[in-house]
TrEMBL record:
GO cellular component terms, semicolon-separated: cytoplasm
Database matches in InterPro entries: LRR_dom_sf (IPR032675), LRR_domain-containing (IPR050216)
Name of the featured protein: Leucine-rich repeat domain-containing protein
Keyword terms of this UniProt record: Leucine-rich repeat, Repeat
Amino acid sequence: MQMYTDPKGEAYRQVIDLAIRNSEFFILGEKYHEDLEPGPYAHVLEALEPYLDKRIVIESHHLTQDVMALRNIYRSHAFYAAGTYYFFRCCEESGAVLKQMANRLADWVYPRLPEDLCFLKADGEDYLYSVVHEEMYGMEVTAEEAIALMDRITGLFLKVDAHRDLDRLLDDAIKHQTDKLSISGHRLTELPQRIRELSELRELQIFEQDLCRLPEGLFELSKLERLCIMTAELENIPASIGKLSNLRQLTIGCGSSDRPVPGWKPKPKEAISLNRIPPEIGELEKLEHLSIRYTSIHELPLELEKLKQMRTLIISNCMIKQKPAFLRRMKLQHLTVSPNFY
């Protein structure tokens, strides 16, 4: 059962207590990072030394062979790279160290800490897993157990079938104040205004073929850093986009379908309603990445030049025939402005 995001604070501590009670070992990895110094976390391994059961080394030149051998024994997400893997016994004392050293699962990553905290049950299967670089977290529990756990632990937000109902998804997202959410497959034409209640949201992905307009409530999410919208056609980018002062990455793709059927085709790009980028885009001082694809946009606003943090600009499959001169003054690492597919 995957998590939308990893629990943090009090939720993290409750999840650690839960995993300690339901697991035999937990694993931490000291992965081999070429050309990098060892992480400054020797004190963590020293604090856990009394609970060390064993260590397993995966050599880089035997990587595939060793990983496959371990996965035949342990059905765990822990093993995927060369390095040293430490198995620690689960007990109240070792759990206390985990709670002292971190505030969320995402903290278990090089260089600050050993990587990818995973808990193994007696049968060698994961109870709780994390692969931090992939932002992948989860628990091996049933749907009924997941719902009961979410009722009990505020901040533990698991992906369950009940979230096919948008109201239930938003109810749980608001209750757990998630910082990451994906909305897809709900046949939406508009987002509910209650999206504004997700005040802790930092990443939002929307893939809804019929979505055509964005509510004002979306632009009240002041902590939002990454916003991705995929749809068949978007009417416009509202001027309120300028309110998202912490936005670092904005991706918009038209001509997309979340439920393609035989014969489905997007509108010709010249028929797509989205034909301009509002000048308020220039108010997004932290924006680093802007990607807009398959639209009838025919010119770029001069206000883009205000974006001093911008490193990637992709405006592709649009109606722009020539790059404006001001783009040459921007310190971009990657630039694509093209009427063709990128």
